[in-house]
Known about the structure:
Layout: H1 2-13, H2 23-35, H3 53-67
Region (Disordered): 64-103
Amino acid sequence: MMRHIINGIEKDLRKPMPAIRDEVHAIELFKIGYNTLELKPSKRKRRNAQIKLTTVLRLIREAGQEQRSPDDICGRPLRRRKRRTRHSNSTCATGNSSVRDEE
Length: 103
């Protein structure tokens, strides 16, 4: 997802992604990249400094879903969850009760 922000930085600066010098420079680059993203309008406006990274990633994902065709909602085929199965070879099931002692 950070690729979208990096593409925005490169688009705005019109050159490849520069090396990050320090934290202040990283924040400045993030703001540049974030401002170039095409996100859905939100009900509550926040400053860039107030938005957490997980929120930015969610907004990018939501914007990407709107650009896809209605038939391609997820972008990948649906996989069912793996369910836990009971193992018949557990230590409780194969205890001494199943083995007959010969006398």
